[in-house]
Fold DUF1657 domain-containing protein.
Amino acid sequence: MTVANQVKEALGTLISAQASLEQFTQKAQNEKTKQIYSNAAAEIKDIIVHLDNRLTTIEQEEPQYRNLEH
């Protein structure tokens, strides 16, 4: 598995985790719990942005990765 593929797999996993946390936020009854889930989802979103930027860099630096699905 190439580095680009590993990054894409990690992005998919993080996106799924973020979606789960957002669902937990909506379903939580306790305000403190909602805040914890919301903060975690926001942190994961930041990581997703940074990882997506890294993927773009990889694709620019390594032309063989450009045609892979993104």
